[in-house]
Design goal:
By secondary structure, the chain is of the alpha/beta class. β1 and β2 form a beta hairpin. The protein is globular, with a radius of gyration of 22 Å. The protein has 12 helices and 14 strands. It folds into 4 domains: 5-77, Thrombin, subunit H (Beta Barrel); 87-134, no CATH class; 148-159 and 222-355, HAD superfamily/HAD-like (Rossmann fold); 163-206, no CATH class. The strands form 3 sheets. A 6-stranded antiparallel barrel has the order 1-2-5-4-3-6.
């Protein structure tokens, strides 16, 4: 699979000609080049990842004063590190709903060695089949239909590099926040396409005198630094999909597919389905499309109203990405699981399905 260029939000401090990241990078090649963008200034860097730290060495020499804390974007043209598990093995296991995660390190190494020794394509194919056939089925919830793990996109898997159309509408709206939210949900998110005339009508409803442009410009989706690793790992536990509220103007399906395939089976933006969270039909539509029961769905999102309340109303099990926020309301124990960030989602789902790593 070819490398995919990635842009990651990073933070850290300068020390001489090095930028020391606050968090170690995981899943990206070391000793290769990238571009660090801070306050609109781009600097070529060399990525140096060690056991417990990642350092970006600035090619142009000293960058800023020692100890200066900054945040910015790291552009990595070479993308993700090559996966240890052969693509055809992962694809076959996913297609047959077999659980590769049950293999410990020694078993996985044995399986990969067994596969790598096959020279002829037909022998390699037979060995893939033998390995996958020996694996147990992926876990199921309460013995029912296979697990579906759905993710919200904006705010959960990543964010836009520029204000989205709804964000711009909210900022300019003369209506109350609740009225603005309802108008955007009802008049924008479910439309399969948005014209200038449509935008003018929505702006009029919101009391905005001049219609906003529907040009996306150079806007792009920036994934959370852990998103790809989390989605990839959870694809072993069930069918991974996305369910998102997004306008047709802001949707960049091509980029989402480049970032998250083959681990995400399908994408269900509101402008495609015509269903807007928290409406339970958004969850029902996605489950019906992948042939699963909504009761077997685990939904992960950062919006309490759209993702948590919507999932509960549909009969799914929600995981709320709190990012340190308190729960807006009290819930019965176990009704809603809380993860501070995406990294905490994996162990929560592992415990839910009762699978061992």
């Amino acid at each position: 699979m070819p490398a995919i260029a990635i842009s990651l939000p990073v933070a850290g401090r300068f020390k001489g000609d090095h930028f020391i990241l606050s968090e170690r990078l995981v899943g990206y090649d070391t000793f290769l080049s990238g571009v660090l963008e801070i306050n609109g200034i781009k600097r070529s860097v060399r990525i140096l990842t060690f056991d417990d730290i990642t350092v970006l060495r600035v090619a142009e020499g000293r960058a800023l004063s020692d100890g200066a804390h900054e945040s910015g974007i790291l552009h990595i043209p070479h993308g993700l590190r090559s996966r240890q598990i052969a693509f055809e093995l992962q694809a076959a296991a996913s297609a047959r709903r077999r659980d590769l995660t049950v293999l410990d390190d020694a078993e996985l190494q044995y399986a990969l060695t067994f596969l790598s020794e096959a020279v002829k394509p037909e022998i390699r194919e037979a060995r893939v089949d033998a390995i996958v056939s020996a694996l147990p089925p992926v876990p199921q919830i309460d013995g029912r239909s296979p697990i579906v793990i759905s993710f919200d996109v904006g705010g959960t898997l990543g964010s836009s590099s520029a204000p989205s159309v709804p964000s711009r509408l909210r900022s300019a709206s003369q209506r109350s926040p609740d009225e603005t939210r309802d108008i955007i949900r009802e008049q924008l998110y479910a439309l399969p396409e948005v014209s200038s005339a449509t935008m003018a009508e929505i702006c009029e409803m919101l009391g905005i005198e001049s219609a906003l442009s529907i040009d996306r410009g150079e806007d792009e989706f920036v994934p959370d630094r852990h998103a790809i690793d989390v989605v990839r790992e959870l694809s072993y536990y069930g069918t991974v999909i996305t369910i998102s509220n997004v306008s047709a103007v802001d949707l960049d399906m091509k980029q989402l597919r480049l970032l998250f395939e083959p681990w995400v089976t399908d994408f269900f933006p509101s402008c495609r389905t015509g269903c807007v969270k928290p409406d339970r039909r958004a969850f029902d539509f996605a489950c019906n499309a992948v042939g699963a029961s909504v009761e077997a769905m685990i939904h992960v999102g950062d919006s309490w109203q759209c993702d948590v309340k919507g999932a509960l109303a549909a009969g799914a099990r929600p995981i709320w990405i709190s990012r340190g926020r308190p729960m807006p309301e009290e819930m019965e124990d176990g009704t809603v699981m809380v993860a501070t960030d995406l990294r905490q989602v994996v162990p929560l789902i592992q415990r839910m399905v009762g699978s061992r790593i």
